Amino acid sequence: MSFPAGPVPSVAVTAVRDMLVQQPSHFRPFPASRKRDCFSVLAMSQFRLKKLDLGGFVNPRILRDHTKRRTFEQYEPERQALRYAIRNTSLPQRVRAQAQLQLANMHSNTRSTQIKNRCVAGGTARSVIRAFRLGRFQFRMQALAGELPGVRKASW
């Protein structure tokens, strides 16, 4: 089966995108509460911001994570619209196939699977406590110092 050449009608994709309810994503950008000494880092990738303002210890992995989160947040409605168009059986087969091609050709940073939870203080990716977005050691140090609200050492 062959499909006539040509782009996906933008009206169909726009209509599908408008139908979707945009819900807040659970992949939050880098939290503003963790900013310390502000300095700017020039970004080099096409998906990075021209100027990035982060504080404290800045590690290349943190920059990549920030970039991936921003890119995902920016392209999420478009990905949802394309996925809806692919699954919608009432649309013509040609439109569905072209939507599938567009989705496959999108950059890999637009996928949610590329995002990894990282410690906002040190940048480590292992044993990150989601509620505080801190690694286990940073969580322990800040909890013992009394910097985390509602957290104290267990005693009975």
UniProtKB/TrEMBL annotation:
<keyword id="KW-0687">Ribonucleoprotein</keyword>
<dbReference type="InterPro" id="IPR001209">
    <property type="entry name" value="Ribosomal_uS14"/>
</dbReference>
<dbReference type="GO" id="GO:0003735">
    <property type="term" value="F:structural constituent of ribosome"/>
</dbReference>
<dbReference type="GO" id="GO:0006412">
    <property type="term" value="P:translation"/>
</dbReference>
<keyword id="KW-0675">Receptor</keyword>
<keyword id="KW-0689">Ribosomal protein</keyword>
<dbReference type="GO" id="GO:0003677">
    <property type="term" value="F:DNA binding"/>
</dbReference>
<dbReference type="GO" id="GO:0005763">
    <property type="term" value="C:mitochondrial small ribosomal subunit"/>
</dbReference>
<comment type="similarity">
    <text>Belongs to the universal ribosomal protein uS14 family.</text>
</comment>
<keyword id="KW-0238">DNA-binding</keyword>
<protein>
    <submittedName>
        <fullName>Glucocorticoid receptor-like (DNA-binding domain)</fullName>
    </submittedName>
</protein>
<dbReference type="Pfam" id="PF00253">
    <property type="entry name" value="Ribosomal_S14"/>
</dbReference>
